[in-house]
Amino acid sequence: MISIRDFLVRGLLAGLVGGVLAFGVAYLVGEPSVESAISLEGSAATAPVHSPDVSTHRAALHDSVVGSVTTGTAADTAQFATASLLPPPSAAPSVDATLVAAPAHGGEHGDEEGTMVPRSLQSTLGLLTGTLLLGLALGGLAGVGLGVAVGRLGRLTVRATALWLAGGAFVVLHAVPFLAYPPNPPAVGSGETIGSRTGLFFGMVGLSVVFAALALVVGRQVHRTHDGFTAGVVGVLLYAVLSLVTVAVVPSYDEVPAGFPGQVLFEFRQGSLLTQLALWVGIGLTLAVTANRLVAGHDAAHADGSREHVPA
């Protein structure tokens, strides 16, 4: 008999694979935009204040940097945290952001307030550690979820169930909350709204999970009188309508400092979404293969055992 522990082990393995894939995408796609944002912080903090434009730009970035050092970047980290249990290092508070904030405070911030981990280590070993831990946590949950779901979703095979589970988790935990409150790079976001933004983002993730559960229940009810395709369409449409209406009515924030390059903001958010997508692609594919082998091996062993007891 296959136990939940068997699925958990395979989920952890899938999480490791997903974590490695996420690290590759985050390093290649996400890190360049983080470096660009940090460079902008540094240039704004050290630029001479002798023109209105520079002064305004520097003041806007200064406010954002202060928020990043204290609580501003924590809001963006919280967005990732809800969606992935652990913040990807690319969204974590930047040591460079902390250090460049010092001149803006007239030198009152020193090393005692800086991060002890250098930026070079954050973007490599720190990033890898974060994505692997994230992959293990989410992979383990996915493995347990697959063990519970197998055989309870109509005629879906083990592989199909694993892929649907991974795809659904990406949409529910990352994509839909991303539409309402996308993450911000260093120097973007106000510390004054940290509490409300964090609360709303957590609420958005919770509502997304509730909508998915409701859609699943309604789909199962429809499946009692209709075919599986119709039940699936009804469930997906219900989730989509509820989610999009919620995204449209929740409060929004536009706290991008004047002069901050839109391309950098776009690339950072694109990188964060692709990183999460890579994580779940790795988890889904690996879990589909390993769980299918587990079930196939169990069925083969069960069939052999049954034949041994057939009278000659």
From TrEMBL:
UniProt keyword list: Membrane, Transmembrane, Transmembrane helix
InterPro entries: CbtA_put (IPR012666)
Pfam families given in the database record: CbtA (PF09490)
Membrane-spanning segments: 7-29, 125-150, 162-180, 200-219, 231-253, 273-291
Protein name in the entry: Putative cobalt transporter subunit CbtA
Species name: Terracoccus luteus
